[in-house]
Amino acid sequence: MLGYALVPIQLFGLAAVILATWVPLSAQASDPLDAIASDPRKLGWMQGFPPPPDRLITQPDANYFSFPKLRWSVCHLREFLPTEQISRGLGAPVPLEYLRPHEFATERQKIDALTFTPMNAEEPMTWEESLYANYTDGILIIHRGRVVYERYFGCLEEDGKHAAMSMTKSITGLLAEIMVVEGDLDETRPVSDVIPETSESAFGSATIRQVMDMTTGVRYSEDYSDPNADIWLYSAAASPLPKPEDYQGPNGYWEYLQQVEPEGEHGSEFHYKTINSDMLGWIISRISGKSVTRLASERLWSRMGAEQDAYMTVDGLGVPFAGGGLTAGLRDLGRIGLLMLNEGVINGERLFPAEVVRNIREGGDRSKFGGGFPTLAGGSYTSQWWVFHNAHGAFAARGVHGQTIYIDPKAEMVLVRFASFPQAQNGRIDPTSLPAYQAVAEYLLTRP
């Protein structure tokens, strides 16, 4: 995985993406363009009527997620792939509350000047420097219910939308946790009780909670150097593009999930595998009789005062990609963060029981988390959310290339970041990002 630059076409997961092409790193420059030089406006991607041939980013040419093209593509996924809407409904949006203009300007200056030392580094860095170091496309900070910081870069503008990637998993997990707390979903039931089609699959004998916490014992190889790895089979099954005439594999997410083989013991340890999220999406859809997109609209977007519709990519059969297909506006994911910070309440209305968030904040079994995530040492994973177990009780939704909804209850802070970091692995970004988030939280604690 470390020897190749990943070029995804449909799946975006922290450790799993569907890839259409992959380019040896030796064929690329040793150092990618920095955030300013790779700005899609500076490079001229898709500018002009028509754009010059060498500035086109198109489908079915499947390299649109290669760097630096991805810095444009993350804001334009529905131009490459079929999608399904998450409706915000017909009501008027409820604006977020902001600091007064002069206070907002002052806070930006103060936050931009904050300094911190990245992990395993000796030299300090400013908050503003970290935004460029991590190829930030949009950043929003809410403190005590008011927006204190907001900036846009790259492809993203105030009215734009951006790929959330594996933060999608946390939306799927939140919907599932709501159903558990409200009594509609029994987390102790085996998956095959709800989805009989999985009776011959390794998923069939796992409990729904094990799927929610990714402690299933299912085989899913993500060794990109192996042409027979499961990631490639999943890629072919999930692709919305026409299948080759000689294709004989599963068609779509759900058909693939019916043939997953066992590996290890259910419940023994955490393994981050995107197929768990798609299995969970199938479960909540079967129980509710509604698609993940419809559930997200009814329980969240149409009730939280959202400004924009969101959307999710779908497979060739129209099934939403519950593990990574969400694209949404920056402020609307800020509203998701507020719901989590305020235990299900926004704009004075309760959308779901407080127990939902309390269960997530408690985290998963830390002994099962293992050592695969050194920048998240001591953390856990539950209901498709990452829990840090730090002194501030922080927890987060996370996605590759730097996507984050970071909630810090002690600091009463919600931070949302969209980004297009050249590599997919968040382990390369965390050493800068996590200390930066902590520095802002510590500063906000000093505000009157």
Estimate the helix proportion, in percent: 25-40%
Indicate the CATH architecture of the largest domain. 3-Layer(aba) Sandwich
- Report the radius of gyration as a whole number of Å: 21 Å
Name the assembly state.
single chain
Q: Low-confidence parts, pLDDT < 50 over ≥5 residues? A: 1-29
CATH topology of the largest domain: Beta-lactamase
The side-by-side strand order for the widest beta sheet comes to 4-8-7-18-17-16-15-14
Number of separate strands: 18
Largest sheet: 8 strands, mixed
Q: Quick one: overall form?
A: globular
- Average of per-residue pLDDT values: 92
End-to-end CA span: 47 Å
**CATH class of the largest domain, anyone?**
Alpha Beta
Number of domains: 3
Count of helices?
14
- Give the percentage of residues in beta strands: 15-25%
Describe this structure as you would to a colleague:
By secondary structure, the chain is of the alpha+beta class. The chain has 3 domains: 4-79, no CATH class; 97-165 and 324-444, 3-Layer(aba) Sandwich (Beta-lactamase), CATH 3.40.710.10; 175-281, Methane Monooxygenase Hydroxylase, Chain G, domain 1 (Up-down Bundle), CATH 1.20.58. It has helices at 40-43, 70-73, 101-113, 127-133, 167-181, 191-194, 208-212, 230-238, 253-257, 274-288, 292-301, 330-341, 354-362, 430-444, and strands spanning 4-12, 17-24, 83-86, 97-98, 115-116, 125-126, 136-143, 146-152, 162-163, 310-313, 326-328, 345-346, 349-350, 380-382, 385-387, 395-399, 403-408, 413-419. A hairpin with a 3-residue loop joins strand 16 (395-399) and strand 17. Mean pLDDT is 92; it is low at 1-29.
